[in-house]
Amino acid sequence: MSDVQEATNQLLHVNLHENQMSIKVTESDPRSESEHLRVTIGATVPTGFEQTAADEVREKLRSSCKISKDRGKIYFDISVESLAQVHCLRSVDNLFVVVQELKDYQFKETKEEVLKDLEELAGKLPWSDPLKVWKINTSFKKKKTKRKKINQNSSKEKIDNGCGDKRDERDVKKEVTDNALDSCILDYYENPAIKEEISTLVGDELATCKDETDPEVLKFRVTCNRAGEKHCFSSNEAARDFGGAVQDYFKWKADMTNFDVEVLLNIHDNEIIVGIALTEESLHRRNITHFGPTTLRSTLAYGMLRLCAPQPTDIIVDPMCGTGAIPIEGATEWCNCFHVAGDNNPLAVNRAANNISSLLTKSQIKEGKPSWGLPIDAIQWDVCNLPLRTGSVDIIVTDMPFGKRMGSKKRNWNLYPACLWEMSRVCRPGTGRAALLTQDKKCFTKNKIKRNFLVMQRMKMINSICASRHWKCQHDLALREKQY
């Protein structure tokens, strides 16, 4: 009898194990489907930094990236589970999922024919997978907003229970934290458990997408971005007619201000790309809480820093820091370097110090314990007479005054040569490098050529990023190295 019981128990154990495995397989079907669901994501980046953004995508997402002919845009393929990682990219401004890309679209000769073709195009596009991605993205943001409201309510209850004196201070810290968290969906890299949560959410959303029979009526708008001189229609006309066809196809309601879905119609010469926006506001709105007259975008600051390829233990200096956007972005992404923010204006130094303090508060709240601090400091100094030893700085990254909002072009003819001499003095010989941003190209170029021999002796690389009104940057490093 004992042998029979043992055999029975073994058989029951095997059957139970097989049943558990079958349950796991059936439960994981939506997830396995989500793993196979791959979409193309488009991102807008500061013009001139397309290659920098593409390098970040390849490094962090392990995905191939294509730079668009239309300046300021890149495209890459991902699985839906990597959606949170995409929102954590530091060099992109806005994100959208591509519905379809028409590379060689033949426009008709008359406006009426072109607009009629755009109307017919709306009903032929593969909307299914992009809308699933949009829904997952929206549900994830709503889930995060609900969490924040719960945390706010619980913190208010704790304050009302006997800590009324500290209410103002805690409310300020909470506001700072909420503003910082609004810039991305979740900090993917600091919480590995999020990946499993995203996978579960993706599976649930894909399952609900299949079960839905009466989809809710959404509000939408169409935004058309057009570039090219050979078009016989305007952006507003294309958005109007294409949007009308989208409305007829989905039975959505058009709303230009309070919309749920933003459909993007990007037209560049003979190329048409239709997409659905995944971000409500630009991802560059992070870190900075105290703004100045010339505050630099965080995405642009990241791109300039990445050009210099910071290495561990490097000393990185921004001698004209303003509100400290560059060193703050550096301290966030390259925490194994030391960043120095300096400016001659005491108001600017004060703003930079306040932004550093806000970043430190955010870091402490995120970790849930007191922090040792950040590798960054703010100093008031004269850029033409830096209190730094010769050859003590590894990297110089700064946004120089253009002579429009700050300073004047006349003063730049005295400022630029003096600050270039001083930068070359403090930069480390042989390995020193710099990324300088300016729009006063004439003044910068002439002063750089005059002093290029001394500067190139002390700096291994100088990237003069000459930005125009639309941040059209051109990198003249290779050209100047050939000349000298």
From TrEMBL:
It catalyses: guanosine(7) in tRNA + S-adenosyl-L-methionine = N(2)-methylguanosine(7) in tRNA + S-adenosyl-L-homocysteine + H(+). Coiled coil: none annotated. Pfam families: THUMP, UPF0020. It is found in: Cytoplasm. Its EC number is 2.1.1.256. One of its GO terms (cellular component) is cytoplasm. InterPro entries: RlmKL-like_Mtase, RlmKL-like_Mtase_CS, SAM-dependent_MTases_sf, THUMP_dom. GO terms for molecular function: tRNA (guanine(6)-N2)-methyltransferase activity; tRNA binding. SMART domains: THUMP. The keyword Acetylation does not apply. Residues 147-167 are annotated as: Disordered. Residues 170-278 form the THUMP domain. Keywords: Cytoplasm, Methyltransferase, RNA-binding, S-adenosyl-L-methionine, Transferase, tRNA processing, tRNA-binding. Part of the heterodimeric THUMPD3-TRM112 methyltransferase complex; this complex forms an active tRNA methyltransferase, where TRMT112 acts as an activator of the catalytic subunit THUMPD3. This is tRNA (guanine(6)-N(2))-methyltransferase THUMP3. It comes from Molossus molossus. The lineage of its organism: Eukaryota, Metazoa, Chordata, Craniata, Vertebrata.
